Amino acid sequence: QVQLVESGGGLVQAGGSLRLSCAASGRIFSIGTMDWYRQAPGNQRELVARISSGGSTKYADSVKGRFTISRDNAKNTVYLQMNSLKPEDTAVYYCRVVAAITGLDYWGQGTQVTVSS
Hints:
By secondary structure, the chain is mostly beta strands.
């Protein structure tokens, strides 16, 4: 059993900041990539940011320069620092981690981010 617990979502005004956290626990001994996805109503789930086990990062064009993904391997935790938030960033944000050995992926329950104009 692997559990992912997300926190940090909420309501913020445009231009504000939020920091999301996602902690993995349970029977996951080595984590590969860690991702943040988001899904707005009526839209498909999209990849927002990815960080590899070695620390390489990748961002969606829409968030480059505003969002920063990071990880703490000792805590099996991934973070998403979101600055200069826009109303179009409003969505449910999900973390996803991939087990390095099995290749299985696990998803968090999602956390709502709402940006008011």
